[in-house]
């Protein structure tokens, strides 16, 4: 098992498949100038599948989420999903995507064994979408979501980040739209993971703000803590049900004590937390020829991963005055 000194057990693995993206969301990437990871540093499809196999068969991982950057940009994605679906025990598999290209790939991903998708969409207004993401692709995202629903990649969850002065008035509209289209909406508080290091706590839209705004139009009833489990979204039943809305309040109501995650970057580094400033290199072990004493065996890799988990910190440190934003932006960590 992947266990840390606080007794938390990681069963949920986030795998970043690329640091590249076809959008440039302001809270994640700069408009230009971000250095991409070098091709030889990226894990190959075989290496990714091997690490997932080790995680599933030796380390107790039961859930795998593919992310990025934009994971649909990875050419081998369908093959990776297919090979992971054949693992014993078979992990639950989902994908976090901006939805562009999903129209084309949703059916193939479902056939390969993907269980569901999370699609990110922050606004219903094409002009605001263009400002937020610096690209004019709103329609592609909506079409991608509909294709995912039709392909049975359900429930389709929608991730929305609200930004002051841009889309912070849209929470009720987004919820009405999600209910109508049978999508499960979750708002994510903006976190200090932008490439520009421009995040300010004072200006951010908090979970409290979001709930207050939603309550102007909907009756929200809090779901019990039991239903929440270790899921980071606190959920509310909308107008008596059956639809729900979630809020992931990583900044104002952190859930670190119940965290069950471990993360793998596209260049083969294990991160124990989104906000970790240290990483553990699995790629070196994977590619080791034995000369440095690491034999590159499954057992060695599992041992290094367990050691990394053992060093997991109690919390994100966001509230600590000495908090340091990680040097990698969200797009290169894997959100
Ligand atoms: N490109 C895919 C997408 O946008 O869904 C997957 C990667 S993206 C980094 C994963 C999620 O992180 C998205 O839902 C995005 O909105 C969210 N995200 C990115 N930067 C964030 C930030 N600074 N604070 C909160 N959420 C952020
Ligand atoms: Fe790309 Fe996702 Fe980051 Fe937006 S949030 S820039 S879609 S990786």
From TrEMBL:
Recorded catalytic activity of this chain's protein: GTP + AH2 + S-adenosyl-L-methionine = (8S)-3',8-cyclo-7,8-dihydroguanosine 5'-triphosphate + 5'-deoxyadenosine + L-methionine + A + H(+)
One MF term in the entry's GO annotations: GTP 3',8'-cyclase activity
Key words of the record: 4Fe-4S, GTP-binding, Iron, Iron-sulfur, Lyase, Metal-binding, Molybdenum cofactor biosynthesis, Nucleotide-binding, S-adenosyl-L-methionine
Positions with a binding annotation for S-adenosyl-L-methionine: 27, 69, 120, 191
Gene3D superfamilies noted in UniProt: Aldolase class I
Residues that coordinate or bind GTP: 14, 65, 96, 157, 261-263
A Pfam family it matches: Mob_synth_C
Cofactor(s), by name: [4Fe-4S] cluster
Oligomeric form and interacting partners: Monomer and homodimer.
Job description of the protein: Catalyzes the cyclization of GTP to (8S)-3',8-cyclo-7,8-dihydroguanosine 5'-triphosphate.
Binding of [4Fe-4S] cluster 1, residues: 21, 25, 28
Gene that specifies this protein: moaA
Cofactor mode of binding and number, as noted: Binds 2 [4Fe-4S] clusters. Binds 1 [4Fe-4S] cluster coordinated with 3 cysteines and an exchangeable S-adenosyl-L-methionine and 1 [4Fe-4S] cluster coordinated with 3 cysteines and the GTP-derived substrate.
Species classification: Bacteria, Bacillati, Actinomycetota, Actinomycetes, Kitasatosporales
Domain named Radical SAM core: residues: 5-231
EC number from the UniProt entry: 4.1.99.22
Entry binding sites for [4Fe-4S] cluster 2: 256, 259, 273
Pathway it works in: Cofactor biosynthesis; molybdopterin biosynthesis
Location of region: Disordered: 314-335
Recorded family membership: Belongs to the radical SAM superfamily. MoaA family.
Native source species: Streptomyces luteolus
Protein name: GTP 3',8-cyclase
